[in-house]
Amino acid sequence: MSDYRELNLANWDERAPLHAASPDYAFQRFREDPAFLSDVVRFDVPRLGDIRGLRGVHLQCHLGTDTISLARLGATMTGLDFSPAALRSARELAEQLGAPVDFVQADVYDAVEALGAERFDLVFTGIGALCWLPSIERWARTVAGLLRPGGRLFLREVHPMAATLDENHTDRLVVGYPYFETAEPMVFNEPGTYVETERELPAMTTHEWNHGLGETISALLAEGLELTALAEHDSAPWNALPGLMVRDEAGEWRLREHRERVPFTYTLQARKI
């Protein structure tokens, strides 16, 4: 395991129990309401369409709430993540709900070896996943290897333009990070996480990368996928720029002013030829 994986894994293993205990991940809502879906998947439903009967895999599934949501929509789901702490919570929740989801521990780049080649009708990747990977080309190769011919990728991610913005500026939009993939990672040392908690994480160093929209699309095309849909959204399911954003009734955050200036997330769909 390379240094970046060791650092990021230590960080995510410490985050996982804090996230599982947070109302942001809504474990109790899942237990109380058999029809409840995660905010991310609820946003995705109009573009996902009917996924009943599809064999799907959710890469970098974390606590599995999106994975379980996709299963509730009728897909036969497998979740894959590199964090054993996250998967313990995911498996516990799935067992409590009686959700028929299989969770597998592996690095995303090892997914084909761990799960088998060309087994899936649907590869799903949710928000906040690609930034942890140094090579978008290797990720695209993994996606292509998992999909059967005719199978579909569904990706909703942080828009790379939004990922360039420095959240430390609360009065204006400031580009502070790379747009394109770089050989060297962006190194962050942050003691907390994105859910509300008073606990500081001892393993606070992470390595991250941005991937330009063109880089991502080109990588998928090079692996034999065809682009079938692309939408850019002026919203995100988290407060990306504190002090500049407001939350709507559906839980999405948008700029308080000039929403037309920056896309915060995007949805990309592609099919394996």
Automatic annotation (TrEMBL):
The keyword Ribosomal protein does not apply. InterPro entries: Methyltransf_12, SAM-dependent_MTases_sf. GO terms for molecular function: methyltransferase activity. The keyword Methyltransferase applies. GO terms for biological process: methylation. Residues 58-153 form the Methyltransferase type domain. Pfam families: Methyltransf_12 (PF08242). It comes from the Bacteria. Coiled coil: none annotated. Keywords: Methyltransferase, Transferase. PANTHER family: TRANS-ACONITATE 2-METHYLTRANSFERASE (PTHR43861:SF1), TRANS-ACONITATE 2-METHYLTRANSFERASE-RELATED (PTHR43861). This is Methyltransferase family protein.
